[in-house]
Design a protein that fits this description.
With 469 residues, the protein is α+β, with helices and mostly antiparallel strands. It is built from 15 helices and 19 strands. Strands 12, 13, 14, 15, 16, 17, 18 and 19 form an 8-stranded antiparallel sheet that branches. The chain has a 5-stranded antiparallel sheet with strand order 5-6-10-8-9. Strands 1-2-4-3 form a 4-stranded mixed sheet.
Length: 469
């Protein structure tokens, strides 16, 4: 067993081990089933602490995980018996340069920190629609948000990143320095090192927006989809919508529609008039402070539950499959174990897809995201059961769309990541290569070449691990 004495001496931050009173809190994650019993958690204070942690892990053959916001349900920020580099305690700063419209953000910050600080200056960038998500995982994996229609992905607004690589180098990556690394971290996840700071381009943003949920009963679904298709065909850059098929507190199926319009309530209600005319049973949409925009889904994404997430690409809205999913949701919820939801994201994608596929590592897709979220209470790991339910719900959607094959969705919605449970390196297994290949598509060969340069031993292997060329 590794002696931690030298590590304690070499880092400025705190070490937490299984014998320490704060250990359970240190390994806790957003998803209960993503927790793993680490040998040691290092709350790093700066990039040099990260270097020392990587060096120690390699010398002692300890697998490494990196924790920013800890929001990946597949366990990418946790590692059994290994070393966790935790950025959340000390590397969580947000500094705004209003003159140059830039945000300097620590790798362990949360999106709520960014939203709250930037809007003080009348600025914002593309961030997560659940604001207790960490900036690191969302950014490195691409990043969709309510402002995507106007400004693209989070990575399209990333100006610079500071990355600590496997050999202990601290590198600045941007359009003029370490250009290949900058390409790789915009969509390639944590495969290339530890991101200690991000610099984002900020944009002028009004202080209030129109947003919030309205709720429809199943008898309104056919009309809802008809109106959705008409609206989506003419969608504008300053609006968006999420439609969630789920069950209410009473166990009855319902479709929750969350609106976003970057304007006043009067403008928003006029813009979405056709939806209000359908006759929702509840209307909670209103004009809110911008910093509350990304709290709209927080209640459905609480910390400490078990979660299984799966994303696919939607080709076209379909009311029959939505009704089938609602029926399944009600039956599953009635059994009292799982709480299911199928979330359809309608965010304008023209800006995203105006960027060439090979301009960044991210696999850009032309269809909208669908996220299946299956949650459960308690400490029992019910991932396998949740996976079966998710597959059943997605199969219903694909049948409704007339598709016989599932297209892998947004990589940040991936749960089954093929992460190794032990050892520092990862042998090149065929199934792993297939999963990463699907995640990165035509960008995969270039990512393999860069992996060989920056992480040839594959010590960063917790999220769609790329096999070095």
């Amino acid at each position: 067993m590794a002696d931690l004495t030298s590590l304690r001496r070499s880092v400025k931050g705190e070490l937490v081990t299984p014998d320490d009173p704060g250990y359970d809190a240190a390994i806790a994650r957003w998803a209960k089933n993503a927790e793993r019993k680490a040998r040691v958690v290092v709350f790093v204070k700066d990039a040099e602490d990260v270097v020392q942690s990587i060096t120690f892990a390699k010398e002692n053959n300890l697998p490494i995980a990196v924790r920013g916001g800890g929001h990946n349900a597949g366990g990418s920020s946790s590692v059994e018996g290994g070393l966790v580099i935790d950025l959340s305690r000390h590397l969580n700063h947000v500094r705004v340069d209003p003159e140059h419209k830039l945000g300097y953000v620590g790798g362990g910050a949360l999106w709520r920190d960014v939203d709250a600080e930037a809007i003080k200056y009348g600025l914002a960038t593309v961030g997560g629609t659940v604001n207790h998500t960490g900036v690191g995982g969302l950014t490195l994996g691409g990043g969709y948000g309510w402002l995507t229609g106007r400004y693209g992905l989070t990575i399209d607004n990333l100006v610079q990143a500071t990355i600590v690589t496997a050999d202990g180098s601290v590198l600045t990556a941007n359009d003029s320095e370490n250009i290949d690394l900058f390409w790789a971290v915009r969509g390639g996840g944590g495969n290339f090192g530890v991101a200690t700071e991000f610099v984002y381009r900020l944009h002028p943003q009004r202080k209030t927006v129109f947003a919030g949920p309205i709720i429809f009963t199943p008898d309104k679904v056919e009309k809802l989809i008809e109106v959705t298709k008409q609206w989506w065909a003419n969608v504008k850059v300053d609006e968006g919508m999420i439609q969630a098929a789920t069950v209410g507190p009473d166990g009855r199926p319902a479709v929750i529609v969350i609106f976003f319009y970057n304007g006043s309530e009067e403008e928003g209600r006029a813009n979405f008039k056709a939806f209000f005319d359908i006759g929702p049973v509840m209307d909670l949409a209103k004009e809110i402070p911008y910093e509350q925009l990304n709290t709209q889904q927080n209640a459905a994404a609480e910390h400490g539950k078990g979660y299984y997430l799966k994303g696919v690409v939607q080709s076209t809205p379909d009311h029959k499959s939505l009704l089938e999913v609602l029926d399944k949701c009600a039956k599953i919820a009635a059994e009292g174990v799982f709480r299911p939801a199928l979330i359809y994201e309608y965010v304008p994608l023209d800006k995203v897809n105006a960027v060439p596929i090979h301009a960044t590592a991210f696999r850009r897709q032309f269809g909208s995201n669908i996220l299946t979220s299956i949650s459960w209470e308690g400490s029992l790991d019910r991932t396998d059961g949740a996976r079966d339910i998710a597959k059943d719900m997605i199969d219903a959607v694909l049948r409704g769309e007339g598709s016989d094959s599932e297209q892998l969705g947004y990589t940040n919605y991936g749960h089954d990541l093929d992460t190794p449970d032990s050892k520092v390196g990862h042998p090149s297994g065929e199934h792993v290569a297939q999963k990463a290949e699907a995640a990165f598509a035509s960008n995969y060969p270039k990512l393999q070449q860069l992996k060989k340069i920056y992480d040839p031993e594959n010590i960063f292997n917790r999220w769609f691990p790329i096999t070095p060329a």
